[in-house]
Amino acid sequence: MRSPALRPAVSAERHWTFAQSILGIRPWSANARQTYDRAMGELLTNALAEAPAPALELDDEIVALGRRLARRSSLLRHARRAAQDRGMALVARDPQVRAALFRLVDVAPACAGPAELAEHLSAFLAGVERRTVAAVASRAAVAPGTRWAAGRAATVAVRAMAGRFIVGETPAAATRTLRSLWEHGAAVSVDLLGEATVTPAEGRAYAARCDDALVRLAADAARWPARPLLETDAAGPLPRVNLSVKVTALTPLVRAEAPERGRADAAALLRPLLRRARDVGAHLHIDMESLDSRELILELVLELLSEPEFAAGPSAGIVLQAYLRDAEETLEHVLDWSRATPRTPPLTVRLVKGAYWDHETIEAAQHGWDPPVWTEKVESDRCFERVTRRLLDAWADERLVRPAIASHNLRSIAHAIVYARHRGLAPADLELQVLRGLGDDLQDALAAEGLRGRTYCPVGDLVAGMAYLVRRLLENTSNDSFLASRVGGAELDRLLSAP
Fold first, then answer.
1. Better-scored residue on pLDDT, 396 or 143
2. Are residues 109 and 17 part of one domain?
3. φ/ψ (deg, to 5) at 230
4. For the chain, how many structural domains are there in total?
5. Domain shared by 250 and 364, yes or no
6. Which CATH number fits the domain that encloses residue 431?
7. Do 156 and 207 sit in the same domain of this protein?
């Protein structure tokens, strides 16, 4: 596998072909291609880094709105979750205790009972016994009289943590929560938990779960009350049902070194889901994962949506990860596709920071590659704002793609809102997304501001959701996390300053 630094984005192939013609390179030379890719990458990165920031007067509005959203969030804050956040912030201060917590969460679903979980708890805390909180928990986990109680407390804590992020084990079990969110002014996106499959049978089972979820959710959503802000924008109707799908859960054949095989296998299962979404009037959103599968997934989705049978639906979308250095080039490729592909419902682009930073940096280091992600948080934040403005410009000027900005960072959210207003967009023309369990207070604040928000809601059992849960815990306790910084008492104006 080649380094991500040497793998150009799909649209860069056109530049290379042009360069060959004017430079007279025949046949393709590996050394010439490598030199060209690096030069083009440096040129693009430097050009984008010099892109102008929004005007200073907008920055004043951004800070003012960020303060207002922070006040609303504080007033609407859930006391129980605030206590959990403080506990997580306390845990995060000690890397060893933090690691022990993640290991405990990882093994909890496989433990036969409280006593077995207590044994794991004691083993995980063995290296941090000198610390006061850990010492008490470790002694309780090994003492005969308190072992069961310690294990039971740990079980309850892990399940409570999972319940904060996961809205139900099945779509049927989640309907009450989904309807409540809708009634309180938040649209929802359902994610059926499940990581990469290892057998074709697992992929077919996941596809069947997705198909069943589309039918069940559509039937239930038809009975929800009208919410005009959540149901239409400048381009027309917005589906009430929104389901997120992972291509790597549909097929075990997603491999960067053999993309055609994985693409064909995934297409055979994704195409029927697009038909079902179209038939029940739902939105199907395709998630992005690690960089290895990004190009395959992107081209698969654009290829399927280009087929004539999907010209009039369903509503569909992709994810763009701002922590990738080529995020802006990827967006331009998507915008070019949107101009060339007439579809009645515009493609939705969900902009996120990205959840696989550790994976990408570690893999790059192992292979001696340049990291494909920004290595400093401020660089990701700047890229996020540049891409936000490009998305909003494309929507305001050409109605190319529906912008969905997903973040818990008040600066990023306020920046998107203020810039959208500056471009003359109505509140319904900008979707703001948060994760269940992390952005609940912010979602309530956005609804109170009369803004269109969507909560990303995982559905599934604890075993299937463990990888997701650990990623959310990592996000919530990261030293660079906006949420962790706020809980830790960081000055709000500093967090709201331009990156």
1. 396
2. no
3. -90, -5
4. 3
5. yes
6. 3.20.20.220
7. no
HSE-up (13 A, CA, CB side) for residue 403: 30
**Per the domain annotation, does 201 fall within a domain?**
yes
Domain end, chosen from 166, 195, 220, is at 166
Residue 192 lies in a domain: yes
Q: Which residue from 269, 235, 229 is spatially nearest to 249, judged by alpha carbons?
A: 269
Residues 435 and 457 in one domain: yes
Q: Are strands 401-406 and 347-352 parallel, antiparallel or unpaired?
A: parallel
- Cβ contact 158:190 at 8 Å: no
Confidence at residue 415, expressed as pLDDT on a 0 to 100 scale? 96
**pLDDT value of position 492:** 83
Q: What's the pLDDT at 156?
A: 63
Helices 30-49, 12-23: axis angle to 10 degrees equals 120
Confidence band, pLDDT 50/70/90 cuts, at residue 460: confident
Q: pTM for this structure?
A: 0.77
Q: Which helix (H) or strand (E) holds 348?
A: strand 347-352
Domain membership of residue 248 as a residue range: 68-72+167-461+464-495
In a domain, 86, yes or no: no
Looking at the structure, tell me whether residues 185 and 296 fall in a common domain: yes
How many angstroms separate the CA atoms of 158 and 346, rounded? 40
pLDDT tens, residue by residue, 45-85: 454 444 455 555 789 999 999 999 998 887 666 655 666 56
Q: Is the pLDDT of residue 479 over 50?
A: no
Identify whether residues 222 and 299 lie together within a single domain.
yes
Residue 319: its H or E element: strand 315-321
Output the DSSP codes for 351-411. EE--S-HHHHHHHHHHHTPPPSB-SSHHHHHHHHHHHHHHHHHHHHHH--EEEEEE-S-HH
Q: Of 113, 145, 166, which residue is a domain's last? A: 166
Express each pLDDT in 399-441 by its tens digit: 999 999 999 999 999 999 999 999 999 999 999 999 998 888 9
Based on the fold, state whether residues 176 and 201 are members of the same structural domain.
Answer: yes
User: Would 57 be classed as within a structural domain?
Assistant: no
Most confident of 98-102, 126-130, 410-414: 410-414
Q: How far is CA 342 from CA 238, 333, 345, in A?
A: 18, 15, 9
Residues 6 or more apart from 114 whose CB is under 8 A from it? 148, 149, 150, 151, 152, 154, 155
Is the pLDDT score of 149 beyond 70?
no
Highest mean pLDDT among 85-89, 217-221, 370-374: 217-221
On whether both 249 and 306 belong to a single domain, the answer is yes
Paired tokens of 353: 């920071």
Angle made by CA atoms 405, 476, 213, in degrees to the nearest 5: 60
